[in-house]
Amino acid sequence: QVQLVESAGGLVQAGGSLRLSCVASGSIFSPNVMGWYRQAPGKQRELVAVMGSLGSTNYAISVKGRFTISRDNAKNTVYLQMNSLIPEDTAVYYCNLNHSPYGGNYWGKGTLVTVSS
């Protein structure tokens, strides 16, 4: 099993920045993909940014150029630096670790990010 614990989100004004972190513990092995998804009220969960254990990244078009994902494999931690936040970024952000196809897919409990206009 894998446990994922996200840092607290928060309330940010439009144009501001916020950094999320997520620490994974338990039965973690490589290769894996860690990253962030989000779910806004009334919408489906969507990919924000993910990063493979070897460094490959994938970003949602809506966040490219504003958000940066990074990870520290030694600490089993993934980060999401969010800049130039806009109200449309308001959502619950979920950390994810995916061992597919060799293992399971795991989720954190989520952390709320609210961007005020």
Describe the 3D structure.
The chain is mostly beta strands. It has strands at 2-6, 10-13, 18-26, 33-39, 46-52, 57-59, 67-72, 77-82, 91-98, 105-107, 111-116. Strands 2, 4, 5, 6, 9, 10 and 11 form a seven-stranded mixed beta sheet that branches. It has a four-stranded antiparallel beta sheet with strand order 1-3-8-7, with no helix packed on it. It is globular.
Quick take:
This protein is about 0% helix and about 55% strand. It is an all-beta fold and about 120 residues long. It is globular, with a radius of gyration of 14 Å.
List the helices and strands and how they pair.
Layout: E1 2-6, E2 10-13, E3 18-26, E4 33-39, E5 46-52, E6 57-59, E7 67-72, E8 77-82, E9 91-98, E10 105-107, E11 111-116
Parallel strand pairs: 2-11
Antiparallel strand pairs: 1-3, 3-8, 4-5, 4-9, 5-6, 7-8, 9-10, 9-11
Q: What does the main sheet amount to?
A: 7 strands, mixed
Order of helices and strands: EEEEEEEEEEE
Question: Using DSSP, what is the number of strands?
Answer: 11
Gap between N and C termini: 40 Å
Mean pLDDT: 96
Oligomer: single chain
Note the overall shape: globular
Structural class: mainly beta
- Radius of gyration of CA atoms, rounded to a whole number: 14 Å
Low-confidence stretches: none
Helix content: under 10%
Strand % is over 45%
Number of helices: 0
